[in-house]
Write a structure and sequence with these properties.
The chain is mainly α. It has helices at 3-19, 23-30, 38-41, 47-65, 76-92.
Length: 104
């Protein structure tokens, strides 16, 4: 992770603490509606959501999973926000998205 990424993450955490609204929620609310041409033309449309998930996951992995304290999977909300964006993009590009198996 480079210094710019670290700085953006720190700024995002400060904003989240100040507003009380999780950054992933702000980003998902700002996404264009499903079917919007932006999903077809902007390859970076989901990048910030992916970065938020990646950072959250690494923190959870290091602080809870490796210490044996994880009771459940971490960062579920961040994952679902990133997944929503990715599915919208794939659908706009006419790439079929299979449904999750019911056993997951």
């Amino acid at each position: 992770m480079d210094e710019n990424q670290k700085q953006r993450i720190a700024e995002g955490i400060k904003e989240e603490q100040r507003s009380g609204v999780p950054k992933w929620q702000t980003l998902i609310n700002a996404l264009p509606a499903a079917g919007d041409p932006a999903y077809e033309t902007d390859p970076q449309i989901c990048a910030e959501l992916k970065e938020l998930y990646d950072v959250c996951f690494m923190v959870w992995f290091r602080k809870e999973f490796l210490d044996g304290e994880a009771k459940e999977a971490g960062c579920q909300e961040e994952w679902e926000a990133y997944e929503t964006c990715t599915k919208r993009r794939l659908e706009k590009l006419d790439i079929k998205v299979p449904e999750k198996p019911s056993s997951l």
